[in-house]
Design brief:
This protein is an alpha/beta fold. The chain contains 17 helices and 14 strands. It has 3 domains: 154 residues, Rossmann fold, CATH 3.40.50; 204 residues, 3-Layer(aba) Sandwich (Rossmann fold); 32 residues, no CATH class.
Amino acid sequence: MKKIIFGSANYEAELAALYDRPGYPPEIEEQAAAIIAEVRKNGDAALVQFAEKFDHVHLEPEMFQVTDNEIAEAEKSLSAHEKKCINTALKQVRAFAKMTVPKGWKKTVRPGVVLGEKFEPLDRVGVYIPGGTAPLVSTVIHTAGIASAAGVKEIAAVTPANREGKVHPAVLYAMKKAGVTEIYRLGGVYGVAALALGTATVPKVEKIVGPGNAYVTAAKKLLYGNVAIDMVAGPSEILVIADKDANPAFVAADMLSQAEHGSGFEQAVMVTDDESMVAKVQAEFARQKAALPRIASVERVEEKGVFYIVVPDMDIAAQVASKYAPEHLEIQTAEPDKVAKKITAAGAMFLGAWTPEPIGDFCAGPSHVLPTASSARYFNGLDTHGFFRRSSIVKYSEAALKREVAVVECFGKMEGLDAHGRSGTIRVKEI
């Protein structure tokens, strides 16, 4: 835990260190590269090998894909309440997704010139669903649910199996409801590599989306180019802007919600213009932490990843938050909408005391797959646009080309590309 106070001798240096937060250790990428190379070389045989090594389960290629009977059994094992919650979240996430589907358009922008855009959904997408420290049922909804709302026809999911070769029943039920067409019990780097490269058993996809641990993140980065990806995301993080009216129990609870993820690289930050709020939140953090089952995970983060920043006013708080560009930004102030207008970068913003970040993780609507490590300054969270191909449309009449052909000819000469110029002039001049 670290306290940073505006105006102190080390304030600027401490903030700079916070903004430049480290990613995962470089050796992780080296290990991921070795696994990818093996999958590229040996296909299904490598998948069998790595399932045994990393997930401690023996799988033959014909066992990779989850069967319809397994999915049906999973559905039976869930309570009515669990299924209702999954269905409610899926309905709300899909409703938001459908509002954001890009629409094609055409417009005559100059006499004889029609411009526009055309959007077509991708044919085949892969989703990675973590299943290690926690079965992320919600990630199914926030990836596959959005892909299906966008009109993607084939959605292949990979997720690790337990030692008995089983996938968590709630994950399977959510996949069925979200429109997943194939489910493979393959985890980590080798599961991502199977989707990106393709094997005899796992057909290649066009894009891979979804969060994962450090190894999954490294694999996606290394495989970019073989396949499209949503983003290179790092450890989870939250920044809470709190004023004197904030409830310390709420602030602490929300900071803990990200600190419990488990890698030890997560960050939880509070920025406040009321220095007395720091001690109040610290006390609540300690009290609530003691009651959590994942206390060891929290304590790993608490040692190096919990920060309290004291600033003179909300204008400075907004500047600090915007430069940090958090994955999750909560604004727990008397006038959250007013503060939100001053924010220039954040993966997602949660406004007011009654909007805890986990409502976004699970059921609010927008995807919880968000940029981290300040990349919200130049990357966006996952949405329906990420599941479409965009083509621009250009149509000229003869008169329009004659009017602008001199520009084509000029650029061809300036760039030393005579054939470029000729392709315009040959249509309207004697050559």
